[in-house]
Amino acid sequence: MPVTQFAVTDTYEYLNGFGGFKESEAVEGALPLAANSPQKCPLGLYNEKFSGTAFTAPRNDNQQSWLYRILPSAAHQNFEPVPESSSESLTSVTPSFGKHFNAIPNQLRWDPFDFDKEASWIHSLHLVAGAGDPTMKQGLGIYIYATGTSMPEKTAFYSADGEFLIVAQHGVLDIRTEFGKILVRPNEICVIPRGIRYHVTLHDNEPARGYILELYQGHFRLPELGPIGSNGLANARDFQTPVADFIEDYENTEWTLYGKFGGNLFAAKQSHTPFDIVAWQGTFYPYKYDLGRFNAIGSISFDHPDPSIFTVLTAPSIPHGDGTAVADFVIFPPRWLVAENTFRPPWYHRNTMSEFMGLIMGNYDAKGAGKGGFQPAGASLHNTMSGHGPDMPTYEKASTMDLPPTKIGEGSMAFMFETCLMLGVTEWGLKTCQKVQETYNAHSWGPLKVHFKRPDSSRGVSNGEKKNGVAQKDLSSVHDL
């Protein structure tokens, strides 16, 4: 069955389908008819336009929604910087990327990241790597979240810096957004666009952990299918958007709104809930997706295809040319391998793209598991043009094994954040977290054996080696004649 068997049932309602126009009302008649901004909105509501792209963006790319709410989002006190000593502060800010990122060519791998039982959502966001600058709306940031408590009541958070792609690895996130409620379970992803306010509650107080890619430029979309045709990979019908759901809390109350802006955290007080949208309509909203519904495509003859064949979502980088992404979200789900006379794991390669990988569950077929290996809740980074590929045991097994049709990855799910940008690593990611496997390179590729055997008829010789009793330099002089 192409769905994940979840331990927790999702009872929330959703609208199905990726992208396009959608509308939802929690109270019948809350949406105005044939107008976005009537002189008086139904039910005494305020209208508010929420723009994810420029007004003049092409119709197919334009992302705007109209919100009909009890009070406008502008009604709050001034934002003030959140002190680093606060329990709600960011653990790693990103105001000056050149100073906070270490761009190094070494292959990196991390042991599983720890839970922080005291941290709620905001304080659990640990910036690991990234490139660019959110103030210029260029680049991305990669986070680990590991939260042990729900956000305090009557608080909300949003990022003005970018779009959050959340990959749940452990524990359930119960997210109330302005647009409605989303339940995000392990092996699901959730995308919360720039500026949307939300509150995160843990299910049954169980800690939660996972990965986040914050996209500073553009938006995620489904990749083009090309010769694949009209269906396959992540199908549009399997994406889910929340339905309108609101709170009435605007008398004798105080809420705290936290905003991530330019990599720093600010807070403002307001005398009403931010979750008061009674109805909405448009093309700009949050959504989620079950990775178990991915329809994997692969080779049925020979050779291992490029990992791009496993792309779930992509964010194109227009300046870098057609087919190039500032961020691709790629998964490696359970699938059949049938290629004949083929080295089936990923081949050794160097890539102009940078590859940050994580493991949600199970084992990854190109790397050893267990302590010191590639483990669930761990990660790896193979930066621009840094060589990588299967470790020695994987290579030795895959290059000598019989090749019957084989189902791999049962109970497993690995993923990759791939980008055309050169990724830098934060001090937290390199040192503070104390999770870097210092022997990753030596453990994976140091033991590789030389299997080369020169045939007797070979014309080539090593420098200075004699062949048929004549030194290489002597052969050269003969050829000169």
UniProtKB/TrEMBL annotation:
Keyword Hydrolase assigned: no
Pathway per the UniProt entry: Amino-acid degradation; L-phenylalanine degradation; acetoacetate and fumarate from L-phenylalanine: step 4/6
Residues noted as binding homogentisate in the record, renumbered to the chain: Y364, H388
Gene3D superfamilies per the UniProt record, alphabetical: Jelly Rolls
Signal peptide segment: none
GO MF annotations, alphabetized: homogentisate 1,2-dioxygenase activity; metal ion binding
Active-site residues, as the UniProt record annotates them: H304
Gene Ontology cellular component terms for the protein in this record: cytoplasm
Keywords (A to Z) from UniProt: Dioxygenase, Iron, Metal-binding, Oxidoreductase, Phenylalanine catabolism, Tyrosine catabolism
One GO term of the biological process aspect: L-phenylalanine catabolic process
Residues that coordinate or bind Fe cation: H349, E355, H388
First-level EC class: oxidoreductase
Homogentisate 1,2-dioxygenase N-terminal domain ranges (all copies): 13-291
EC numbers for this chain: 1.13.11.5
Cofactor: Fe cation
Matching InterPro entries: HgmA_C (IPR046451), HgmA_N (IPR046452), Homogentis_dOase (IPR005708), RmlC-like_jellyroll (IPR014710), RmlC_Cupin_sf (IPR011051)
Pfam annotation, one family: HgmA_C
Stretches the record annotates as Disordered: 377-403, 451-481
Residue ranges of every copy of the Homogentisate 1,2-dioxygenase C-terminal domain listed in the record: 293-452
Family: Belongs to the homogentisate dioxygenase family.
UniProt-listed NCBIfam families: hmgA
Name the record gives this protein: homogentisate 1,2-dioxygenase
Lineage of origin: Eukaryota, Fungi, Dikarya, Ascomycota, Pezizomycotina
